[in-house]
Amino acid sequence: MSEQFFPNVQKIKFEGAESTNPFAFRYYDENRIVLGKTMKEHLRFAACYWHNFCSTGFDIFGEGTFDRPWIQPVGDQLALAEQKAKAAFEFFEKLGVPYFCFHDTDIAPEGATLKESHANVNHMADILEAEMARTGVQLLWGTANLFSNKRFSAGGATNPNPEVFAYGAAQVKHAMEVTHRLGGQNYVLWGGREGYDSLLNTDLRQESEQYARFLKMVVEHKHKIGFKGTLLIEPKPQEPTKHQYDYDTATVAGFLHKHGLQDEVKVNIEGNHATLAGHSFHHEIAVACAEGIMGSIDANRGDMQNGWDTDQYPNDVAECTLVMYEILKSGGFKTGGLNFDTKMRRQSCERDDIFHGHIGGMDTMAKSLLNAAKLIEDAPLADFVDARYAGWKQGLGKDIFDGKHSLESLSQMVLAEDTNPVSVSGRQEMLENIVNRYV
Amino acid sequence: MSEQFFPNVQKIKFEGAESTNPFAFRYYDENRIVLGKTMKEHLRFAACYWHNFCSTGFDIFGEGTFDRPWIQPVGDQLALAEQKAKAAFEFFEKLGVPYFCFHDTDIAPEGATLKESHANVNHMADILEAEMARTGVQLLWGTANLFSNKRFSAGGATNPNPEVFAYGAAQVKHAMEVTHRLGGQNYVLWGGREGYDSLLNTDLRQESEQYARFLKMVVEHKHKIGFKGTLLIEPKPQEPTKHQYDYDTATVAGFLHKHGLQDEVKVNIEGNHATLAGHSFHHEIAVACAEGIMGSIDANRGDMQNGWDTDQYPNDVAECTLVMYEILKSGGFKTGGLNFDTKMRRQSCERDDIFHGHIGGMDTMAKSLLNAAKLIEDAPLADFVDARYAGWKQGLGKDIFDGKHSLESLSQMVLAEDTNPVSVSGRQEMLENIVNRYV
Amino acid sequence: MSEQFFPNVQKIKFEGAESTNPFAFRYYDENRIVLGKTMKEHLRFAACYWHNFCSTGFDIFGEGTFDRPWIQPVGDQLALAEQKAKAAFEFFEKLGVPYFCFHDTDIAPEGATLKESHANVNHMADILEAEMARTGVQLLWGTANLFSNKRFSAGGATNPNPEVFAYGAAQVKHAMEVTHRLGGQNYVLWGGREGYDSLLNTDLRQESEQYARFLKMVVEHKHKIGFKGTLLIEPKPQEPTKHQYDYDTATVAGFLHKHGLQDEVKVNIEGNHATLAGHSFHHEIAVACAEGIMGSIDANRGDMQNGWDTDQYPNDVAECTLVMYEILKSGGFKTGGLNFDTKMRRQSCERDDIFHGHIGGMDTMAKSLLNAAKLIEDAPLADFVDARYAGWKQGLGKDIFDGKHSLESLSQMVLAEDTNPVSVSGRQEMLENIVNRYV
Amino acid sequence: MSEQFFPNVQKIKFEGAESTNPFAFRYYDENRIVLGKTMKEHLRFAACYWHNFCSTGFDIFGEGTFDRPWIQPVGDQLALAEQKAKAAFEFFEKLGVPYFCFHDTDIAPEGATLKESHANVNHMADILEAEMARTGVQLLWGTANLFSNKRFSAGGATNPNPEVFAYGAAQVKHAMEVTHRLGGQNYVLWGGREGYDSLLNTDLRQESEQYARFLKMVVEHKHKIGFKGTLLIEPKPQEPTKHQYDYDTATVAGFLHKHGLQDEVKVNIEGNHATLAGHSFHHEIAVACAEGIMGSIDANRGDMQNGWDTDQYPNDVAECTLVMYEILKSGGFKTGGLNFDTKMRRQSCERDDIFHGHIGGMDTMAKSLLNAAKLIEDAPLADFVDARYAGWKQGLGKDIFDGKHSLESLSQMVLAEDTNPVSVSGRQEMLENIVNRYV
């Protein structure tokens, strides 16, 4: 690599918990074996293309602050995209993430027509392929951007105009095929504009049916092209729209069941989307695991005092320990992984700051994995929970599940036996103390 | 009626919009015909037993302030319940609501055993039956309280202890039968404790299965006893528990689909629960209508600056106009109605204050009905929405729904035709202005 | 006017409540006399330069959708600014707002140096002056933008770098002088970046002292140049920063008292900022009036389900009636007015949509004024409140305020007289019903 | 001690970080020296009377679940209060907290008259005095309850009825004197009902003046009786009222400045009140320190997904490390301390559960103290912050503070020198990583 975009940063190495080197890992030791797998295999870290390489750090109140020479309002956009790819892979390689993720519009400029856009994407896919081969970095997932261009202002799949639906369908088809070609392990759908700004001009039932139709086409095409990766829906409650249809994991799970898609589609859960929906990150993961649709994670955090998507780096080991505990309990990631859908604060304007963010995020998740593994081994929570629900594995509880009881028979039993169950402590505070022993 | 509990209040009458009599209706004219039905038939107002007659106005920081002589910590509780029934029916009759609603534990004191509790409920059911016959007031819905007694502190149907499940089942059985006997038009399930306080001691999948099993038993028993009313689940996101499983309408709809119960159970939507879940009241009604599970309404409002259930009287005609518009659009209430699950502010300590609250609430909904009816007749919103989605009724849109397209064929079409749809205005501000013409 | 930017729209006229013309006022009849003044004099409407003429409708997830030919990434920016001014004054005139508002960077492009920026602003001020003379539209307030340029990413007055403080001071000086020259009636300070993103790198005490120093310089300069308008601080709790120092009206009032500036500076209250701070719009206005620092209003609304500044047009007559009631009670606007700091939804992409938004907003405030005037005349609230606090005008209450009592003497009195005050109803529901009679 | 209320629990001892004994401290080693003082001297832990001994665990939806034999609806209330005191001191002693806190109504039953109430309080004060002597447990602060009795439903000091003001004054006088007699180190005012439920019936200016008058009387009485402790106001934004006047620390600071009380009164900051006000706990502490009014802490946490006061035990070491860091930076506690205004979850119904809660809370704060002490010693944050603001200690920055500059002179400087400050990174992510090294 002749020119370097991050000349001050060397490959990030593991140096151990006592290291004070800000450009070293303290916990992420990729080859360390934990519960029979390496940390790398467990965590399946990915960095994203968009926040890191496609944003100048602008916000709604001010211009960009970041130093990103490959982003220019004028000039040869495809040549700039090539520079961007070089910067991206230099970063991925130095950081040591095994995966990356992208939207079609991240990697290549949009053309005047879809045909041109596809050509640009194809051109860049060649370059990404070469960079992937050179570095060994793989693709965790790809996706199509159906929310930034103004044609999607009223939605992609749920647009009142069927031509927009068609345009989005064509874009998804191509993005999925590029993902397939690049060996992507998942394909994600995030419906940033699949929602409404006002109920006054919206037909909810109509849009819901459009969405289901679109999703079924996507499933069909996946099988048609032989893509073996997982399809993932990413729930978000609102922003940019007032309300998004994929509000949270429970909503998505219900939608999948309604349309018989529960075995075809899983969820990509983002920490910040969880909290915007009024849930803890832990909750969303636990619901997805309980529903059997846990797929992948966008590992970030929000700001509990701010009501928009801040996409900050995860840094709460206590919370992420419970997230990783749920993941491990449910068997660990299959095709999914931990993608950092994270961005720098606007004041973090030095190019090297993105290393600080990711190193902190990776160490947070690595330490959380270590803690969670110990929680799995010692099983203090699992033992408590098993004992708490033991009554459902036998006797009355089992009979109820086995269909041996009705309201009638249970009523007779309670009246006959003067059943009067006594409460036992849920021991929440004690369990919280126990968890803190592992954090 | 010898003794009176509200001696200063006479039967509330309609006096017209210009009336300044605080004890008169300005809009609710029960026999006025609107879109072919009387206002009474449209609105199906109900007052609730619990907030009005079972609470002293205490809150978590202070004692009761209300003057409720039939609530006494000591003394003959059944005799007090009889007094309470007299007060309730005096109130219902003077207010002129055609319906009321109750929990089993509202109408009768709990006994030392379930048998005693049932006997108390039966005793009071005789009295209610007589009062209903005397006054013509009918039962909109009944329900069982599976959340106040400490035995339900870890849930009813979702309790880790199957004996609690059984106890709750027995209670629901009896409450549904009493509801049936009294001609109730719906039976409601609100799972105040069906949720979790901590994920650390909770098995979400297990509790979800218990809940589904319980609900199926309830459906089965309904059919067995020939109850023709509607079963209703009332969504609420949290409070008293940290998280309730029936979070919002979309969550309940999904759960019903998952378990094949979407034709057996509908929702009872509360305005304040909607806002606690991060939705507008209008949103929850619109989702329920779109899902075909709109059942009944708990007509109250929350305080947008307070994060708990304030259960205030609806007084926002603009919002309730849109709520009634959705109801009318979907064909109006069938067995459901508008129940005031509302309570006085703690400072509203005079006994007559509950008339002020209800009169305001009823007039708000009555005016909203009138506005909504006009919105239906003039159809400015429906016309706009129909035009906006017209592309889906023919040509490309229809073909997509008819299964004539795949991602492949749509992609070919877009590439071949250089399809590049242009955005048209959603006209949100104009539509908001139009709605304001009807408010 | 040769070229027109809004050729399809004529001067908006008052047509009365029954009008269904979307380009007419139904309530705003500028010459109608209300409580001795015209509606125009009462409401003092202003339209803003920024949202209407400086934004393309982009959001953080997507490009602009609005048709604004005077916004171009390349080309002669000063010539474009001249076009923009023409469009703006065509709009102001057709809409019939008596005032407008601007930031320095709205009206003129930033130069390579501050000197160039000043020259640009001066050039445009000449043009504005001519347009103002031509149309009779006046300046409600001006302000300097110390938040968009990346130099202000860590704040203006509160920046860790004193050079940024100096730069901001120079910009404010010039903006205030231009405001003065154009006859502006107020000068506003909104500290979008005067706050923190992280406490870890922030010295709160230091930044607070910087801010006070800055504000005192502004006050000093105002007097020096003989500007007679009012200085206004605009509170906002967060966004773009995590926390802004001018959090809400109470915070600003306290800050002014701490630094002895309570007679020099007032507040410009925005509806959406109020709700982001956890207050109702009504609350913020009421606090400002009670503190004697009510200055001006940014009349917009937020979305109660979205946690960011949506800057929507006010359309809730019930709420705005209470806002206008507080304003009238405190004597009406002096130099302040009602500025629409409002923006179109991103889907409202037609150029004419900004008329719909403003017409709706102006009618909402006009109807609210009419309602509020009647509430003032009939005085049902004032009478109730006066009676409620009557005890403080005489006897014990007066003695307490007159310093005739101590804890000691009050204790003696209560013990001697067995004082045991009985609660009386606050009559909240009854008062809410009364207000609804006026809405 | 003959009878024991917590027979299964022995005195809690420090056993070290590796201990798995749930009834032992892992970090709180009271005699360990940290930065020159013992942990006991630094942390000044207190347990509260109210949640632990005066509550049955009821919530608004259900009855109590806790086993508290000294709480009985009927019977000799003074004798029960004596039992309660025994239980309390057994608990304080076994837990090893050096302090406790109480409301007047916690320790003694209210009488039919204030005279009787005072007599009851005095009787119990004798008993507390003896228990304090016996155990060595001291009083951190006392307070009067002006919110539970229905006479205070419209406020104490801010009540529309001056007789209620007088009653409250008499109660505060007595509670302060009892606090003084028992050697209390602070006296707290929490205005649970000093706020409004509706602006419609409220005169904000009047109530604010009442409140200021009341507070001045309290200050006067403090000096009169020679009480040397600190007066503390406890901010809370809402609940039970819709809005409380002591909304947050900034609001209280402003109020104190307005009335010249900033040297007489400090704040008692509660973690859960901070988050209800839209702030982080850390923020409220930092503001109080910056304002010089940091007094004492109610160490609890809220639930970020629930909008009411959950009063849970602190268990987030990362957050509390920053809280303790601010405290240490500002010189540590003077008269204040860490009071656990915490309560058990309703399902934690075993009597011993309150030990689990407190042990976890104390260890969380103890570990946080250790972390914070290291952050003080190593000073990575302080060094960064000092360097960041260095420009204000000399040259231009110093000149600005020294009054050598005006807008005019700064403008001249910027124009003359073409000052164009360049942004430097705020390094937020790097600093967050550094903090995580200390957690």
TrEMBL record, chains A, B, C, D:
Catalytic activity reported: alpha-D-xylose = alpha-D-xylulofuranose
Cited InterPro entries? Xyl_isomerase-like_sf, Xylose_isom_bac, Xylose_isomerase
**Residues annotated as binding Mg(2+) 2:** 270, 273, 309, 311
Q: Which UniProt keywords apply?
A: Carbohydrate metabolism, Cytoplasm, Isomerase, Magnesium, Metal-binding, Xylose metabolism
Catalytic residues as annotated in Swiss-Prot or TrEMBL: 103, 106
Give GO terms: molecular function aspect only.
xylose isomerase activity
What cofactor(s) does the depicted protein rely on? Mg(2+)
PROSITE patterns annotated for this entry? XYLOSE_ISOMERASE (PS51415)
Q: EC number(s)?
A: 5.3.1.5
Q: State the similarity comment.
A: Belongs to the xylose isomerase family.
Supply the name of the protein. Xylose isomerase
